[in-house]
């Protein structure tokens, strides 16, 4: 579940609980909520995971710190 504002406001047909903590709203599995080292660019270093192909091609990642792939330092 994403956190933010709904463009429909009070007319939205979905329920958005306010009293739930942000961690409970996360869609990641508990095993993936470990402390991950970040690069200077704020991208995750997930050693042992596949390297982010988009990051290799462009040098950026649209998912940022939430990306599930590894982002090694450029050589």
From TrEMBL:
<dbReference type="Pfam" id="PF00642">
    <property type="entry name" value="zf-CCCH"/>
</dbReference>
<protein>
    <submittedName>
        <fullName>Putative transcription factor C3H family</fullName>
    </submittedName>
</protein>
<dbReference type="GO" id="GO:0003729">
    <property type="term" value="F:mRNA binding"/>
</dbReference>
<dbReference type="GO" id="GO:0003677">
    <property type="term" value="F:DNA binding"/>
</dbReference>
<keyword id="KW-0238">DNA-binding</keyword>
<feature type="domain" description="C3H1-type">
    <location>
        <begin position="46"/>
        <end position="74"/>
    </location>
</feature>
<feature type="zinc finger region" description="C3H1-type">
    <location>
        <begin position="1"/>
        <end position="19"/>
    </location>
</feature>
<feature type="domain" description="C3H1-type">
    <location>
        <begin position="1"/>
        <end position="19"/>
    </location>
</feature>
<dbReference type="InterPro" id="IPR036855">
    <property type="entry name" value="Znf_CCCH_sf"/>
</dbReference>
<dbReference type="InterPro" id="IPR000571">
    <property type="entry name" value="Znf_CCCH"/>
</dbReference>
<dbReference type="GO" id="GO:0008270">
    <property type="term" value="F:zinc ion binding"/>
</dbReference>
<keyword id="KW-0862">Zinc</keyword>
<keyword id="KW-0863">Zinc-finger</keyword>
<dbReference type="InterPro" id="IPR050974">
    <property type="entry name" value="Plant_ZF_CCCH"/>
</dbReference>
<keyword id="KW-0479">Metal-binding</keyword>
<feature type="zinc finger region" description="C3H1-type">
    <location>
        <begin position="46"/>
        <end position="74"/>
    </location>
</feature>
């Amino acid at each position: 579940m994403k956190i933010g504002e709904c463009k429909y406001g009070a007319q939205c047909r979905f329920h958005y609980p306010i009293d739930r903590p942000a961690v409970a709203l996360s869609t990641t599995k508990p095993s993936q909520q470990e402390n991950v080292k970040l690069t200077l660019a704020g991208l995750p270093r997930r050693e042992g995971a596949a390297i982010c192909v988009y990051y290799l091609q462009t040098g950026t990642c649209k998912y940022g710190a939430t990306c599930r792939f590894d982002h090694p330092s450029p050589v």
